[in-house]
Amino acid sequence: MDFFGERGGSLTCEGVALRAIAREAGTPCFVYSRRTLEHHYDRIVEAFPGVDLLACYSVKGNSNLAVLDVLRRKGSGFDVVSGGELLRVLRVGADPRRVVFAGVGKTAEEMRAALDAGILMFNVESPAELDLLERVARARRRVADLALRVNPDVDPRTHTYISTGKRESKFGIDLEAARALAAGLPRRKWLRMVGVHAHIGSQITEVAPHVEAVGKVVAFARDARAAGNPVTALNAGGGFGVHYRGGEARPAKEFGDALAPLVRAAGLRLLLEPGRFIAGNAGVLVARVILVKESGDRRFVVVDAAMNDLLRPALYGAHHRVWPVRAPFPEAEAASRPASETWTCDVVGPVCETGDFLAKDRRLPPVASGDLLCVYTAGAYGMTMSSNYNARPRAAEVMVDGRRWQVVRDRERAEELFRGERVLRPATRRRRPRRRPARRRARTRR
């Protein structure tokens, strides 16, 4: 469920017309709904009754400070994967004891910052990382709490680029190697294994892969405790899918009904890392039509948003619904409309790449230069994956809260794109001074 709708023939966010936002904030712009963020966070919490649950919002999905602050106020913890993300959650006043540091390549500097902040735990992904964390903890004279991230070799049946729980993935430690590590951890003074972790992928729309993975991780947790580790937490990752086309996602309750009994029986605290589930349908990207181009039998609607704003279609071939902000008929009627009332077109951006598209082969009402289009489900992995490719300033971000809205990230200006850059000055050769010929002294006649 989300709080984007239609009123008077125009698309809205929490009742605020998107065209009014675009008129003042400009385009392209990301528009987020506070009520939708809160609603989806509540659905996660409600899905696991009777479980000691800490939902750690995955910051990589959408790291805007306003989004983080909304979730902090709801009681969310945070899952971070870099020192920059850690700094962001601390900036909004998050409790470090509700922060988990994940990621396959943490640096010593990032580990030191997280230890000094007093985070809940690190998710450790390799023996080499375990050794580095031990060295950092010893130098800091602080015990580092950690969870071993295991790779349960479970196929989540999602896109290969966002599948992280199979044996060939770079993430996690295979179960046998993890058991050997866990057996030696009680003897390592500066490390304390307090949890186990598995995250099998993103945009997962089936419950069974999660059940299989959690079953394996629970068994591993028992072995780790038997080896003398004070394991009290199971981090089941995230990856619950959302609606991109409509109808493919499962309610959080279905995941909760299947997973909660396994966690309760194991006597463990449950950590989750939902990102897309909370933020995905809480945001849209609003773009303005620059022009319509026909080439052969193809029609291209060229808009002012591009792959540098929303990379997912170019990177994954991802599907996002696209619809005019002011349309003569609802989207649900498009398929039943006569061909004379709709276009089949590609929605593309101005970036100089063939892969720069937001949608292909879509049926839309005819549009013209200046019209606005809404790209749905852009609240996660939109702005966080954006870039300045083609020297394009990044979009503005807006948060809607009931009847009021606010720009929560200013649109970049072109002049800001080269802040911190330097022009290499050509080296100047030092010219050696010319030696003047010695003046011959005139001889004095005697």
Q: What is the arithmetic mean of pLDDT?
A: 92
Head-to-tail CA distance between termini: 117 Å
The total beta strand count reads: 21
CATH class annotation of the largest domain: Alpha Beta
Fourth CATH level, the homologous superfamily of the largest domain:
Alanine racemase
DSSP helix fraction = 25-40%
The main sheet comes to: 9 strands, mixed
Sequence stretches where pLDDT stays below 50 over 5 or more residues: 161-166
CATH topology description of the largest domain: TIM Barrel
CATH architecture descriptor name of the largest domain:
Alpha-Beta Barrel
Cα Rg: 28 Å
Q: Can you tell me the overall shape?
A: globular
Quaternary form: single chain
Structural class: alpha/beta
Number of helices: 11
Which percent band covers the strand fraction? 15-25%
Count of discrete domains: 2
Structural features, described:
With 446 residues, this protein is α/β, with parallel strands linked by helices. It folds into two domains: 63-274, Alanine racemase (TIM Barrel, Alpha-Beta Barrel); 281-413, Lyase, Ornithine Decarboxylase, Chain A, domain 1 (Beta Barrel), CATH 2.40.37. The protein contains eleven helices and 21 strands. The chain has helices at residues 18-25, 34-46, 65-74, 83-91, 108-117, 127-140, 175-184, 208-226, 252-266, 276-279, 312-316, and strands spanning 4-7, 10-13, 16-17, 29-33, 53-58, 77-80, 99-101, 121-124, 144-151, 173-174, 191-197, 233-235, 269-272, 283-295, 298-303, 322-324, 343-348, 357-364, 372-375, 396-401, 404-409. Strands 4, 14, 15, 16, 17, 18, 19, 20 and 21 form a nine-stranded mixed β-sheet that branches. α2 crosses α3, α5 (108-117) crosses α6 and α8 packs parallel to α9 (252-266). The protein is globular and about 70 Å long. Mean pLDDT is 92; it is low at 161-166.
